[in-house]
Amino acid sequence: MEANWRLASRQKALWKRAAILQAVRAFFVERGYLEVETPQRIPAPAPESYIDAIPADGWFLHTSPELCMKRLLASGYERLFQICHCWRAGERGSLHIPEFSILEWYRSGTDYHSLMHECEALLPYVARAIGLPNPFYYRARPVDLASPWEKISVREAFWRYARVSPEEALERDAFDALMVSEIEPHLGVGRPTFLLDYPVQRGALARPKPDDPSLAERFELYIAGLELANAFSELTDVEEQRARFTREETYRRSLGRQPYPTAHKFLDELSNMPPSAGIALGVDRLVMLFTDAATIDEVVAFTPEDL
Amino acid sequence: MLPVGELKKGTTLILDNEPYVVTTFDFVKPGKGQAMYRTKLRNLVTGAIVERTFRSGESFEPTRLDQHNAQYLYHDGDHYTFMDNDSFEQFTLGEEALGDATKYLIDNLPVEILFFRDKPIGVNIPNFLTLRVVKCEAWAKGDTSSSDSKPATLETGAAVRVPPFINEGDLIQIDTRTGTYLSRVKE
After folding, report:
1. Whole-angstrom Cα distance, residue A247 to residue A257?
2. How many domains does chain A have?
3. Which of A11, A50, A93 has its CB closest to that of B28?
4. Which residues from chain A sit within 8 angstroms of residue B29, using beta carbons?
5. A71 inside domain
6. Which of B8, B27, B29, B139 is the mutation pick for testing A, counting most A CBs within 10 A?
7. DSSP code at position B109
8. Per-residue pLDDT tens over the stretch A178-237
9. Domains of chain B listed by start with CATH number
10. Which residues of chain B make contact with A180, given a CB cutoff of 8 A?
11. At A105, which CATH number?
12. Is residue A103 within 8 Å of residue A82, measured between CB atoms?
């Protein structure tokens, strides 16, 4: 039998991937972050309207290490990072794979602005470590990683690219459709873009802005149309978090989705969490960006279809 | 009904009372938002391409197309002629109706002609085809810069990426749905 060419053809990308992971680790170690590994099978995932966890022997495979990472923050850890696999049921496309790799890092005593600075430092650090020139090209589009990166609020982006307010888009249930078709194609063109300050309904585990509680301190990082990372100033208001979990879980159940038990330990310990910020970055997409790969299939050792 | 999540490249469906075939299909999901499916669809009657984004949960009426076994005969410019194996009737289809299939048409290729309301509107070609490589660069041993794949041209004119050990004159198996190399075929 001939050697499996699909597996063999990824070898160059996998060498780059390994170098990228090493550089990411070096970056966080240099900055005094503790690398942790939290369990990947958990009893109660954070309920989110459009993310489905995969059941595993009575518990669930985590969709993100977020809840465990925050319990560590709440117990006094100050700087944490983790690189791990996560699972999201049914997500398969050119940028999605149901088992994917995530980089999450968390810091206490700070907010989402410092995470933007850290993104602006991390990506050039990794790009230099693997010998990528600046600017470099992703799918024939130039990307300049030099600071400062573009910042645009969700409100401004909706007005500029979709000629509608985010509130109206939410009301018409068109928020995500407009985001995909009208807004995302304009983000991260030429240089990276932080899309920030989401309507609080789309805030998930982010805290409301002190000067405008209708907005959540959440940003997404886009580069060359790729959505790379999602970050929050973490919500530390236990009652607000409990209410949001209840709302999300009720909505999930109304759609007939797999019910989750309540994450009691997380909610109980959240009251001890200092003001903090946290971010999740898609490792596979970072490798795509730095290897000029058109699909996620090119940068993982195995796709589900290869198994 | 056909749920949007089950569409694939090549699926046919009815949209606004017209038959379409899916030519590209991708799952998209903005951060923490709803899953959507971004598609390009080719109108099976007019050949027009439309881009549509559907939400998960939407579904379609499947198209009922009659299929006749046929073979490819020849082409004249961008008109391609096929013969029905049972009636020996000949049909001519334009390039726009055939889409990617034109890249793999080789004399006497067995195909299925698709009929919508008695009108021929397209063909299905076999998913797997064995074709000869007529052009590709030789493999420079030790050249690691091109170690993953290299471009090649097949006897039908189709361009594919092949592994470095493939040479001109080799027979290779192609997946016509994705246009990708599968394996070398020993003669």
Report:
1. 14
2. 1
3. A93
4. 50, 91, 93, 96
5. yes
6. B29
7. -
8. 999 899 999 999 999 999 999 999 987 899 999 999 999 999 999 998 999 999 999 999
9. 2-62 (2.30.30.30), 66-124 (2.40.50.140), 128-185 (2.40.50.140)
10. 28, 30, 33, 36, 38, 53
11. 3.30.930.10
12. yes
The answer for B 125-154 residues in CB contact with A (under 8 A) is 147-149
* Residues A80-130 pLDDT 10s: 999 999 999 999 999 999 999 999 999 999 999 999 999 999 999 999 999
pTM: 0.89
The verdict on residue A206 lying in a domain is no
Note whether A145 and A247 are within 8 A (CB).
no
Whether residue A156 is contained in a domain is answered as no
Determine which of B4, B6, B7, B28 to mutate to test the interface with A (most A C-beta atoms within 10 Å): B28
Range of the domain at A90: 5-145+236-306
Residue A243 lies in a domain: yes
Does residue B5 belong to the interface with chain A, where contact is any CB pair within 8 Å?
yes
